[in-house]
Design brief:
heterodimer; A: mainly beta; four-stranded antiparallel β-sheet; 0% helix; globular; B: mainly beta; 53% strand
Amino acid sequence: DAGVIQSPRHEVTEMGQEVTLRCKPISGHDYLFWYRQTMMRGLELLIYFNNNVPIDDSGMPEDRFSAKMPNASFSTLKIQPSEPRDSAVYFCASSFPGTADADTQYFGPGTRLTVL
Amino acid sequence: AQSVTQLGSHVSVSEGALVLLRCNYSSSVPPYLFWYVQYPNQGLQLLLKYTSAATLVKGINGFEAEFKKSETSFHLTKPSAHMSDAAEYFCAVSKASGTYKYIFGTGTRLKVLA
């Protein structure tokens, strides 16, 4: 399996622009997680989905952030409008709790976002 | 509520020396515990996990961790450090059932000295 795939790997944009980050989970995994990593705040869970349905979005920082999962193989995290404080590495992870590998999350390589 | 505390944001060891990275947790239910490693500019990779089976868990790259309920600890060890072990290490806790959210510790950056 190719693992969790994220695109783009790097994104540089200007304040006020819309940014869309993409994630393809491991095939067959029915949980998908979006995290943000910064030096100041460490790893933060933003939102997670089960069977394409958002379960907990309490970590989404504000209304500028939105996430969707239109199907089992694709999710997006959108920031509109972007601000310099959104600069971070954004990770996507997936898991399949219905197996002996329950609870193990598999992480993608991340998207490094820089907002100027 | 669950929480994870990693003591020491930076740890330095000499090559060949024992590696000990500390993790303490709090949980009102039997926890699942994880150690992940993050190499520079990469995602997180699972090292090992405890899911209520054997209390001594062996993982990849020669690492192991022991679940000690009485001490609420899950420290990560490796008998002999290698230069390639230099990375950031994260401890995480999740509930045994009902939710699959992780609570991550703040991470420990391991430096290996030649």
